[in-house]
Amino acid sequence: MKQITATVISNKDLSKGTFPQVNLMCLLAPELAMISRPGQFIMLSSGSEVILRRPLSVHQIDHSGRIFLLFAAIGKGTNWLSTRQQGEKLDLLGPLGNGFSIEPKSKKLLLIGGGIGISPLAFLAKEAIQQRR
């Protein structure tokens, strides 16, 4: 686990006016992208008015050091997070959790999730495809 400062690359509202607002945030965080695994999460500081950090699943990573977070803006902390702009800095702790593991003998995977719970499954699916599962 590391504590780092990440830079917001983009923060897109994917919901087109629905409630709750769903955002896809891209952060430059090479230190975390290199060591994050599917199913792990980060704890993200959500501004000075919110004391507790927000746990967010790692949705995707890429080898250029970017981490993608998919989240619903439903409370004070995630609403604050949904307003962050390109170039802003965020305080992160992570990666946390054990993550998912794929049994070596597994050939066909069934991934089931609902709502915002699908966020870490995209990362797992990408890993499974790369492993030719």
Structural features, described:
- This protein is α+β, with helices and mostly antiparallel strands.
- It is built from 3 helices and 7 strands; from the N terminus they run ββαββββαβα.
- The protein has a 7-stranded antiparallel β-sheet with strand order 4-3-7-1-2-6-5.
- A hairpin with a 7-residue loop joins strand 1 and strand 2.
- It is globular and about 50 Å long.
Estimate what percentage of residues fall within beta strands: 25-35%
The proportion of residues forming helix, as a percent range, comes to: 10-25%
Return the string of H and E elements. Answer: EEHEEEEHEH
Largest β-sheet summary: 7 strands, antiparallel
- Radius of gyration from CA coordinates: 15 Å
Strand order of the largest sheet: 4-3-7-1-2-6-5
Q: How many beta-strand runs? A: 7
- Rounded mean pLDDT is 92
Structural class: alpha+beta
Given as residue ranges, the uncertain stretches (5+ residues, pLDDT < 50) are none
Task: Tell me, briefly, the overall form.
Answer: globular
**Helix count from the secondary structure assignment:** 3
Distance between the termini: 28 Å
Attribute tags:
globular, 7-stranded antiparallel beta sheet, 35% strand, alpha+beta, 133 residues
Secondary structure elements and pairings:
Layout: E1 2-13, E2 21-28, H1 30-33, E3 41-44, E4 54-57, E5 60-61, E6 66-73, H2 76-82, E7 89-96, H3 119-130
Antiparallel strand pairs: 1-2, 1-7, 2-6, 3-4, 3-7, 5-6
Offer a quick outline of the entry:
With 133 residues, this protein is an alpha+beta fold.
